[in-house]
Design a protein that fits this description.
13 helices; alpha/beta; 14 strands; about 35% helix; Rossmann fold; globular; TATA-Binding Protein; single chain; six-stranded antiparallel beta sheet; binds zinc ion; eight-stranded mixed beta sheet; 2 domains
Length: about 325
Amino acid sequence: MTDRYSRQTLFNPIGKQGQENINAKHVMIIGCGALGSANAEVLVRAGVGKLTIIDRDYVELSNLQRQQLYTEQDVEEELPKAIAAKNRLTQLNSHVEIDAYVMDAVAESIIPLLTNVDLIMDATDNFDIRFIINDLAHKYDIPWIFGSCVGSTGMSYTVLPGQTPCLSCLLSTMPLSGATCDSVGIITPTIQMVVAHQTTEALKLLVEDDQALRSKLVTFDLWNNMYQTINVERTKKHDCPTCGENPSYAYLTYDAQTKTEVLCGRDTVQIRANREFELDELAANLNRIGTVKQNPFLLSLHYQSYRIVFFQDGRTFVHGTNSIEKAKSIYYQLVG
Ligand SMILES: [Zn+2]
């Protein structure tokens, strides 16, 4: 262990004590696509004590351009991102304890995992999940770091429950376009820039140098050479449903009821069942319909013009439609 972190401990604001703090801390990363991969790699190389990774997806070819933890082999094996990430991260730093969960980031499944979590990193791709994170962070008093990016534009902000305005308070201040990576694309430097902001703030929190935190919302457009930080102190609302005087944490109850969901821009519907799939049994049934590909976490097959992926945790992706009705009918045809 002596030399591994020498360049980091030489950096004065971290030092030996800071490194000990980093080694003792537990970070949860929600989402393990482009932002999650890059955040995880930085924190694992920096020597964070424990990392919990949550992701619902599996690795596909179009991920490799920017999701830095994954390989062609992971695509071939259709490995869930959380599992492929854990494999790679363990090679990078075997001293870090890594818990990987292949599941939807819904409140009821995240709450049991929050014990002793010091910091939550947002690496998701939508505001529904971010508002759940925002509520969870305030209810359980855990700092979280928002990050988002599309095209060549990105944003980041550090939320400290009980101190800063929260994501709900900020929303009217944010330059939101409604564009997604699936509609207008993204270049990798955009991700790296957001991650540079997120992980620097994370290191400050982990070494407990709160004075150094940025406190402002940062936004940038790398292609068009724009960078700005926005003072948001005054956006804090006393009646905010998350960080106000009488919080209702509305997203923690609302979410639990969502059972089907169109995955933004992906021509895919997710269906979530209240049971786990017995994959071997399912494969035996579905083999009569088409060629089934299977690994310990999921199985997939082509059916009519659709591609269907069953996850062991009870979720199903129906690729090739945005219609919940159509996806359900296919689903019931296959699993009854
Ligand atoms: Zn608020």
